Amino acid sequence: MSDSTDFTDSPASKCGKCGLCLAVCPVHRLLMEEQASPRAKIQLIESYNRNKLPSSPYLKELINRCLMCGTCTANCPSGVDHYSHFMDMRQEMAKEHGDRIEIKGLVFLLAREQRLRLAAGMAKFGQSIVPEVFQKKYRLSNIPLDKFPQLNKKPFRSVVPEEIPAKGKELGIVLYFTGCATNYIYDTTGHATLELLTAMGYRVRIPQQQTCCSIPMLYHGGIEEARKNIEQNLQCFNQSDVAAIIVDCPTCGSALKKEFPAIMKKWDKDSNMAEAISTKVTDLMSFIYDRRDNLKIDEKKAATTGPVTYHAPCHLKNTFIPADRLLRELTCIDFIEAADAFDCCGGGGTFFYEYPEISTKMAMQKIAGAKKTGAKLWLTDCPVCRINLSGRLTAADNIKMAHPACYLAGLLRH
Amino acid sequence: MLSSAIKTELIDIVTKDRYLDRPEELACYSYDSSLDESLPDAVIFPLTTQEVSDILKIASRHRVPVTARGAGTSVCGAPVPIHHGIVLCFSKMNRIIEVNTKDRYAIVEPGVINGDLQKALAPFNFFYPPDPGSINISTIGGNVALNAGGPRCLKYGVTVDYVLGMQVVLASGKIVRFGSRNIKDVTGYKLSALFCGSEGTLGMVTEVILRVAPQPETTRTVMVTFSELDNTAEAVADIIGSGILPVAMELMDKMTINAIEDAGRLGLARDAEGSLLIEVDGIRESCEREMARIIEKVKQHGAVTIQEAKTPADRDKLWAARRQAYGVFAKIAPDILSEDITVPVSKVPEMIRRIREICTRHNITVGILAHAGDGNMHPLIPADRNNHEEWTRVIKAFGEIFEAAAALHGTLSGEHGIGLAKAAYLPLVMDDDSREFMTMIKRAVDPDNILNPGKFV
Q1: Residue A2 pLDDT > 70, yes or no?
Q2: Which CATH number fits domain B4-89: 1.10.3210.10, 3.40.50.300, 1.20.140.10, 3.30.43.10?
Q3: N- or C-end of chain A: fewer Cβ atoms within 10 A?
Q4: Contacts of B328 in chain A (CB under 8 A)
């Protein structure tokens, strides 16, 4: 690599080491150790690339101790793309040092829709046969098994038609990327999304060939698996007659919006299709916000729901605009904003499973923040945030969690 | 490498969790925000004054260098362990021990982040005035060690003006206390002032008593642009000379404005040759009168646009632009050389002319931003260290800028410190006997030269 001509290719070259990323990195703020910071990771990657630091399992550990929330990238004054450099380095490290068997298993499952369906069926069976006492006792990432969400009886996409007409006058067609979470875990989010979109005058099309957005695989080095998924998704979402491509999960959303075009370019493939799709991708709540005059809320019903609060997922705040603005706009609801609504919850894909101690501390801080608002309903768009936070709520907390879509769909005027 | 015997002694004090020496970890403590890097042999996170004392006793006995570190946002290399040894990282020793607004002080441990102290003071309608660009992450310990300033120090003064007292661990491990909780205190030497800007060469500060101030009732902020950089600088000296003391007067030249715009599209005027971000604070009526006079003055100096912040969001946007200035320069080239020269405010126009002349003569790019109201200037030079020919020119210009500042009764550093980056230029502003006096103090306090060796003293 020629240092003087192409400095932007090396991760550290644009980094002025100013340290502003230390202030916004949730992991660094908790641990207060330089090695946990985005700045340090960039320096480590640079040292590794220049053969100043050998590859080691501990290097992998330091690189992976990251939520991949992208907040460093979003706040870097020097334009360092930490997120992409971390993604590349994680792949490199996974190649050299492997991954935990469970993580490998996850990559394997997400790579093929049939595998996922089969596994979900088995897990569903598993959830029903494991005695309750064991479910309370055994924990994943400090979360008792019985606090994990029940899987959908059937995958969401298998129980809804491929195309659902608008109610009333049709304003346009939207495509719906359901994501794995809605398909296998939170089908209520999917049904609520359909209710909202059709009520607002949109015909919803759910391409049946869609599959996992591939972000979890990219985090864990499953590049080949990811490539197939990305290409398959691009094929079935490449439809010119649609007004928007809706996502209900911020991470899938950021994949479609930012990662797909970037990855196609990186693989030296034609990125035009990915770019065209990217411009149409929007998160559900932003889509509704932009058309909020069409959202007919039953104000009397809204007044009876009691105070609600909100957690802004990192991938939503770093790629789209969080839903607090919509909630604030709806004056008929009692929305109380938590002081730390924009802080990370510590979920971070598989982070909460890999680093339970760090994740638990962050989640408990968030729960304390939500409790201060007095709200009994805590809304958040991201399924991982929801698993991570609701798994640690106790009955005494008396707080329920939901996707904002579920809440709003329940308030629709009929 | 530290011997295994020393390592065992140190781990006995802080436990294994707070002792790092794997190569992957050491690499993360070899740098700050400047260009120099050097690996430590170990990194230790103390939590108490007693631990710091015990560590220094061992370091003294074995003559192991000890370099203090906070958040590592220094821009002069102060926390870079150039002689290796131990990096003593204070980031986890971060309790706010007491906030007492009736007596106008706060007592904090060195790892407390400046911004976190601000948050703790806000409910009482108080604040801590020094506001370095790194306010959201830099620590009070680091602020003290570098005697940090910031934009609003024009009106309020720098760190040393807010340090009432401190607890310090000397190289020997002895624990001493200077000053008190009293705003007025002339009991003995003002030794806590000596430690401000000492860059960890005299002792380890483990507790600081800081003066805090009531928040002003209101602020008024305005962004003014000019068609000439000369006019911009003249306006500054004229406003200050007329008896108005704004909180901040931030000057940016065309190069800086455009670098910020390239990075963030904040809506600054790209064709302006110079701009001033001016803020006044205080009682509503007096702010209005001061702002009216400022606007009158800038008009006299040919202001092209005058944009007043109408809402707090407007104000944040104007300040966000200014705060990004340093970072955005890193986008332009692999390395960035930042100066921190300070001249009497009446000399600012002349100093700016000289900087531009020097840089033009050496054919190098320079962006000028300055806390112009107190003459504290940050010429930023984006360059590439690996381009030997260019770098030689840059270093030459760097030295000539120092010489020019010294000739105008200026000084090397207004707020960043000397560290590694500027040590060689000290003779420009301090004669032999004066520097020898510093060395005498250093020798008396740290006879084995274990505290941050290899720096300016």
Answers
A1: no
A2: 3.30.43.10
A3: C
A4: 77-78
